[in-house]
Amino acid sequence: MIAHSQLSDFLLKNKIRNGEICLGGNSTLKIYGRLQCKSGKRMKKENRVFFKNKTEALQNGYRPCGHCMKEEYKKWKSTINPL
Description:
Structural class: alpha+beta
Number of helices: 4
Strand content: 15-25%
């Protein structure tokens, strides 16, 4: 997990281009999603973190975004709140 505040714009673009960053997350809400997600683009820079993959995000206690990762969110929700 990498905090956005620790990266320059140049370094961030390079990490994304090299595949070192594939997902973004909100450290306050503990939600992760795709870098293109409208919800993620609106969050404050100081709350934004980045992950290499889903496994890393889940290991850090984050849940999938309900907007850009609907299927993953439904699976996550069913394991938390089974009917």
